[in-house]
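In this section we walk through a basic example: taking a raw amino acid sequence and producing a predicted 3D structure, encoded as C-alpha cells. The instruction is simple. Fold the sequence below.
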Amino acid sequence: MMQRINVQQLNSPITDSDIISNEEFIESEIVKLKDMDPNWVGFCREKSDIAIESITFLLKQWKFKHELGFPCGSCDYIKLIERKLEQYKDVFVSFFHLAPGLVYEVRERSPETYLWLMLDKQFEMKREHLLSALYSSNKVDKNIVTLLVSGSKRSDLDIVLAEMISGDAPLKSNCLYWLHLRQTASYSLLNHFLKQNKLSDIELLPLFSLNGDMEARDELEKLVEGDAFLFERLVGRENRNTWLRHTFGNSLDKAEYSDIVTYVHILEIKDLVVFDVTSEKAPIHLAIAGDIEDVEATLAYMVTLEADEGEEWLYALYVLYGDAFPLNPSKLGIEYEWEDALALLAEWYEKNEHRFETQLRFGKPATSESTIETLLNKHIPAEFRLWIWRSLCLHSSTYFPWNAYMSSEQQKTLFHKFKSNQMALRRFDNRGQHIATLGH
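The resulting C-alpha cell sequence is shown next.
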C-alpha cells in the first residue's frame, strides 16, 4: 500500500509561478535542438513519431482491456502491451540522454505518451518532468490519465500532488482526485486543505462523508440538490432507505432521476420502483438486483432489439448467471451472431434453465463472496462493475476507493483487504433483514 501524505510532509507549495518557470525550463531545452544538426534531429524525430504511433495504440488497447473486464495480470495480451511499452520507453530514455528536448517536445505531439513517460520511475530524477506532464494532462483522455496516475510508481508523485494543492496550482481539483484514487491523502491533510481554503467545501465534503464523517455529510446535504453526490450521501447512512424516501418521495420521475432509480434497485426498495426494460439503465438494474423474476420480461424485450442494442443485455444476464449462462457476451459477432444468440436463449428459456430459487450473482447466491468474484471477472464491462462495487459499499456500509482502471494488483489488494473485514461481509450478506427495524 502507498504511504499516506501528512501535513508535516508538505515542504514548499507549488504555485502558479512555479508552473510557469517550469514551462520556461522545458521550452528552453526544446529550443536547444535548433543548435543541433538538423539532419540528426530530423532522424530522431522520425524515430520518435514511429514510437509514438505504437505507444498511442498500446495505451488505448490497455485502457480498452480495463473497460472490457477485470485486467487479469496473467492475461497474455496485457503482458504483451506492458512488454512493448517497456521497449519503447527505452527508446525515449536513450533520446533523453542525447538531448532532453527530444523527449520534452513529445508533449505537444502526443501528451498521453509524454504523461506515460514522465510518470515512470526512469524520469523521476527531475520534478520538472512530473510538473510538465501533469500540467498538460487535461489534453489526455481522462481514463488513460486515471490508468497511468493510479498505477504510477514514482516516489515523489503524491507529495507533488499535495504540494500543487497547497500552492493553488492549476489542476488542483484533479490532484485531489488522484490523491484520493491512490489512497495517499491522510485525513489530516484533507482537513488542512479545508481549513486553509485550498479546496472548496463541495470538493472536500464528499470525501469526508465517504469516510464516515456524519457532520461533513450533513454539511454536504445543505450544499447539493437532486441526485448530486448521491453515493457519497448514502454510504454509511444507517437509515438510507428511509432517507431516500423522505428526500425524493415515494414516486420517482425516471427521466429526472435516472441514477436515483438505479440506487433504489441497489437498495432493493421494490415498492418504490418496478423493473422497466425500457429505462435508460435497465441492464444495470437487472444485473445489480439479480432478480430472476425480471428475466422473462428481459428476454421478451431482447427479441425487439438489434445486436448493438442487445449486447449490454447479454452482459447483464451474464452477471446474473455466470458460467450457467449459455453465451459468452464478449464473443458476440465473433463466434455467433445476434440471431444465433436469440435462438439459443429461446431454447434455454424453454428448457427452464433460467430458473433459480435465489437472488443471483454470477450463477451463485448474491453474497459478498460472489459479488467480489464478479468484480474480478475479466468478461464483465467497467460500467457493470462500477455499479456492483457501489452496491458492495452501500450494503456493507464500508467505503473503499476503487476504479476499473486500477491495475490488477491494486484491485486485488483492495478486495483482499475488504474480505478481511468480517463485519462488512456480514452486513452485506444480511442486507434486507429487519429493514423496518434497522432502517437499511
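Looking at the output, two observations stand out. Residues 110 and 280 are 36 Å apart (CA to CA). Residues 434-440 have pLDDT under 50 and may be disordered. In the next section we compare this with other chains.
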